[in-house]
Every structure is written in structure tokens, then in C-alpha cells.
Amino acid sequence: MDVIPFDDPRLTAMGLLSEVHAGLEARMNPVFTEAGLSMIDFETLIRLARSPQRSLRMSDLAAQTGLSTSGMTRVVDRLERCRLIRREPCVTDRRTSYARLTEAGAAKLETVLPRHLADIDALFTALLGDEEREAFMATLRKIRDVVRPCATAGAVGSGCTGRA
To answer: Where are the alpha helices (DSSP H) in 1-102?
Structure first.
């Protein structure tokens, strides 16, 4: 019978990653809540803001966030009711629609970003030197590309189609 090593360093690595994620989320969530946003609302808005024409196909947005298409539809419905984004039909394919950041959505991000960036600095980036930060970002991308290969769906140069 094999003995299971409870002190395996792989468990420690995974535990540290989970603890850091939960801690960062808990520390950063109040900024979003104050602005009337959830974490997924913010993620959706910032992904649109960082996309060409501030727009993504709904399927690509779902793939980038890791939500199902129906889950993304619910998020987009909520953000659309708040006039932070709008849906636009594709002129060449009636089955496709786009989510586009509105001016109100961009303004909402502009109110949230200063505090969010200050939190990122205080809790993350300022804790690392330039070389540490670059190496850490490269490591995160390497892991992300394996566990969420469609996280950049719809981006220029992305190999993911956004379709499951």
C-alpha cells in the first residue's frame, strides 16, 4: 500500500495559489461592490475595454471569462440593463452578436480603475521587483494557456475560435 504524502510540495503550491487568489479577491471586491459591480461584471467590462473597437463576439467573451454562453448572456443582460454595454447583431451572420462597451461602461471603469490599480500595486505588483514580476507574469501565462486556452479568444493572434 502506497503512503499518500500529505506534505507533497505540489499540494503546497496549489494551496498557496488558492490562498492568494481568495485573498486578492476578498481584498479587491469592495471596490467593485461600491461601484455596483460584481467581479464578473468588472471582468466583462475590462475585457471589452481592452478589445479592438471595445467589442467582442458573445461567444469569445464567454470563452475569455470561462462562463457558459448562457451564463455570459445573463451577465450581458444585466450590464445592458445598466447601459454599460450593448448588444449588436453581426451584419454578416445573424447567428452572431457582439457585446460592445458603451460610454457609460467606460465611465464606470474610469471610476473604478484608480482604486483597483492602487490595490493591485499594494497587494501584488509593488511586492515584486521588475524581473520577478516579468517572470511571474510569464509563468502565469504558461499555466493559463494550459488551463484556459480560450482566455484570449477573439484577440488578435488568438488561436482559439471561442467555440466549445
So the answer is: 9-34, 39-49, 58-65, 69-81
